[in-house]
Design goal:
Blueprint (H helix, E strand, L loop, with lengths): L13 H13 L1 H9 L4 E3 L6 E4 L8 E4 L4 E2 L1 H5 L1 H8 L3 E6 L6 E5 H17 L7 E5 L4 H13 L2 E4 L6 H11 L3 E5 L2 E3 L2 E3 L1 H14 L6 E5 L32 E3 H6 L10 E2 L3 E6 L9 E5 H15 L7 E4 L6 H13 L3 E5 L10 H9 L1 E6 L1 H8 L4 H4 L8 E4 L6 H11 L5 E4 L34 E4 L10 E7 L9 E2 L3 H9 L10 E5 L5 E6 L4 E3 L2 E3 L1 H9 L4 E11 L3 E10 L7 H14 L8 E4 L13 H9 L14 H9 L5
Helix pairs in contact: 1-2, 5-6, 7-8, 10-11, 13-15
Bound molecules: adenosine-5'-triphosphate and magnesium ion (MG).
Magnesium ion (MG) binds next to loops.
Length: about 675
């Protein structure tokens, strides 16, 4: 399908991309140094841009950039934009769970709030280098809290608001956080989530483990109702008055009380480029989450540059990323990247299905959103409702549609392009990880000709390679392990408190390379296609298969909503395919369907890939960020009830259903 070629894109042609790319990898110091000039550094850097060792055989792995400079990322997000005349520009339109709730905040007002909360944190004894845990809904105070940490040099560790008390406490303990910032509660659709009592339980668990936070700051979000510009009477769905919050005088502090007396002036802490900025735990699709540590300057340059080019962002446009700030996508592409580019963003508290499946498009029309960023899981869940909820809204402001989180199957890609984008938007399938800080493989809107399901080419500064099992680089078309050969500014620096784990996880399998853990293939035109995680590769009778490929063929069947494929040990083939299939509402899972699905996979990939098992899966186990947990499914396939760490699973009850359904496997 064509990309919309825009005359005003930052990068207009593939030749221009290639030229910029060449400089970015051959003279990274020059390329990034020029970008760094557009930001404020208290002390300019003088030495080499990069200093690094990625080769474990030569000693400790480390990555540093601009390491003799000092700056502050919060200053660059806020003060810099206010000083250049953007004080009255809207930083965020906030859209509540309830469609009647909304407000907005300018750059100037955001700066005031951040300075106030910076002073609050200081008054609670928080100093540079201390860790602050943040467990909040998608409200503006969350952005204020994280930027305040960055301003005073404290390291924020944001824990997604959908996590349990146990998951929260293990993250507070791992990072030894001194303060927790939370809120009373939040509505997700019609469901009330009592965040404060989950936070209380988490803090109790921490105390049992010998670590107590000194303060827990609580925002009154649903109990105060001070948040919305529209003061009309609300539906019974929000019984604010009936909500009772426990209060522990020893540690609990009211956000509102503390803010009232705080000054709105706060000199930023001038940080060394390589001082830590934040810890973020990975989503736990493959195992126990890792506390990924990002540092100030490199992350700042990379967040800003990827946001600008990948979305082709121009000042004045309205940008909407549907992620939660509790994930890396929210860190880089709701808070830091957009603010560094002086963007106007929509921050959305709710879910795509409330009050109905049109919600995203209602928001797009309301704010005239032109750049939209979501996940394949959201697109697939909306596909189930057909085209009508989408066609109800014009979406005519949309120009770029982004996706991230999992491989996007061509079926969903085409739906995104044809139905949601009216065939007139560029689709950007962005491949990256918590560890990479920002996009590493992505098309450029109005520039890169796309192919459905391919993340296309590397971003500036990224040098990918494909390795065989033996660690040999595959030139030209081929399939193998995706690796990166050079550092880039936004690359993680270590696993918090465990540098050995950092080296072991990413640098030992193929010494000399960064190994993200994903497989990929390169086609005849040089396009890169992510084939899924290395752990999810399946070897059937000596043929290496990617789960993404099999899943894509299953999903193409008109009755299939979602599919996940794992391996099961097989006495003859070594491994065989075990498929979990969710059928569309109103469709029936039966022998006929199973036959058709087997035929489909056979036809698409080859006879050797014919699935041995196809099981009905009314629901699939997913992480709280919406990714399929194939390691759990592998255990279901084997009938092994010892599931390992499932603290990151969104809804554990689906697994029980799957164990029961095993009997009906065809
Ligand atoms: P954990 O590392 O704890 O198992 P996780 O890998 O799910 O969790 P994230 O850092 O949130 O944690 O996700 C990054 C991973 O998501 C990538 O390594 C890749 O497997 C997948 N991914 C992200 N974007 C894409 C994409 N556009 N195409 C294919 N896969 C993607
Ligand atoms: Mg990962």
């Amino acid at each position: 399908p064509p990309t919309s070629i825009s005359e005003v894109s930052h990068v207009k042609t593939m030749d221009q991309y290639k030229e910029m790319y060449k400089q970015s990898v051959e003279e990274p110091g020059k390329f990034w140094g020029k970008i760094a000039e557009t930001f404020y550094f208290k002390k300019q850097h003088e030495g080499e841009f990069f200093d690094y060792n990625l080769d474990i055989r030569k000693g400790e792995v480390y990555i540093r950039c601009l390491s003799d400079a000092t700056t502050n990322i919060c200053y660059n997000c806020l003060d810099r934009n206010v000083k250049s005349g953007h004080g009255d520009t809207i930083a965020f339109y906030w859209e509540g769970n309830d469609p009647m709730d909304s407000t907005s905040i300018t750059y100037k007002k955001l700066l005031d709030e951040v300075c106030k909360f910076s002073n609050v944190l200081k008054s609670l004894g928080v100093k540079k280098g201390d860790r602050v845990a943040i467990y909040m809904p998608m409200i503006l105070e969350l952005v204020v809290a994280m930027l305040a940490c960055a301003r005073i040099g404290a390291v924020h560790s944001i824990v997604f608001g959908g996590f349990s008390a146990e998951a929260l406490s293990s993250r507070i303990l791992d990072a030894k956080c001194d303060v927790l910032v939370t809120a009373d509660g939040v509505y997700r659709g019609t469901k009330l989530i009592d965040l404060k009592s989950i936070a209380d339980e988490a803090l109790e668990l921490c105390t049992k483990d010998g670590h107590s936070v000194s303060a827990c700051v609580v925002v009154k979000h649903i109990t105060a109702n001070s948040y919305c510009d529209d003061k009309t009477e609300r539906p019974a769905m929000r019984p604010y008055s009936g909500f009772k919050m426990s209060w522990n005088k020893a540690v609990d502090r009211s956000w509102e009380d503390l803010m009232q007396s705080a000054s709105n002036e706060c000199e930023p802490e001038w940080m060394n480029s390589e001082d830590p900025l934040f810890i973020l735990y990975t989503s736990g699709s493959t195992g126990i989450p890792k506390g990924v540590l990002h540092h100030v300057s490199g992350y700042m340059l990379y967040a800003a540059t990827t946001h600008k080019y990948t979305f082709d962002y121009h000042c004045g446009e309205v940008y909407f990323c549907t992620a939660d700030i509790g994930w890396i996508t929210g860190h880089t592409y709701i808070t830091y990247g957009p603010l560094l580019n002086c963007a106007t963003s929509v921050m959305f508290e709710g879910t795509p299905l409330f009050p109905d499946a049109s919600r995203y498009w209602a928001i797009v029309d309301k704010y005239k959103v032109s750049k939209f960023y979501t996940a394949p899981t959201a697109i697939r869940s909306l596909m189930k409702y057909g085209e009508e909820p989408i066609r109800k809204y014009s979406r005519s402001s949309l120009k770029v549609l982004g996706t991230v989180g999992e491989p996007i199957n061509p079926e969903a890609w085409l739906f995104y392009h044809k139905v949601i984008g009216n065939e007139s938007c560029s689709i950007v399938d962005t491949f990256w990880q918590t560890e990479t800080g920002g996009h590493v493989l992505t098309p450029f809107p109005g520039c890169t000709p796309t192919k459905p399901g391919s993340a296309t080419f590397p971003f500036f500064g990224i040098v990918p390679a494909i390795l065989s099992d033996e660690g040999v680089e595959i030139e030209g078309p081929g399939e193998g392990y995706l690796v990166f050969k050079q550092p880039w500014p936004g690359m993680m620096r270590t696993v918090f408190g465990d540098h050995k784990r950092f080296e072991r996880t990413y640098f030992t399998k193929f010494p000399g390379y960064y190994v993200p853990g994903d497989g990929c293939k390169r086609d005849e035109d040089g396009y890169i296609w992510i084939t899924g995680r290395i752990d999810d590769m399946i070897n059937v009778s000596g043929h290496l298969l990617s789960t993404a490929e099999v899943e894509s063929s299953l999903i193409e069947h008109p009755q299939v909503a979602e599919a996940a494929v794992v391996s099961k040990p097989h006495s003859v083939k070594g491994e065989c395919l075990y498929c979990f299939v969710t059928v569309l509402q109103g469709s029936e899972f039966n022998k006929e369907l199973v036959k058709e699905l087997k035929e489909k996979v056979r036809h698409h990939i080859g006879a050797f890939s014919t699935p041995d098992y196809i099981q009905n899966a009314p629901g699939l186990p997913k992480t709280r960020s919406g990714k399929i947990m194939r390691r759990v499914l592998r255990n279901v396939a084997k009938g092994n009830r010892d599931l390992g760490d499932v603290s990151t699973m969104a809804d554990a009850s689906v697994v029980e259903v799957l164990f029961q359904n095993r009997d009906y496997t065809v």
